[in-house]
Amino acid sequence: LEIPTGGLSDWTGRKTRLIIARSFHAVGTVWFVFLSSPLDAWIVGTIWTIGLALQSNTDTALLYETIKERGGTDEEFMRHRGNALGWRLKIGACITLFVGLIASIDLRLPLYLGVPITLVPLVCSLLFTAPAPLKRHMRPIEKLRSISAGVVEAKNSREVRWLILFSSCMTISSAVWYWQNEYYTMIGIPLEWFGVFGFVGRILAAYG
Question: Whole-prediction pTM value?
Answer without folding.
Answer: 0.68
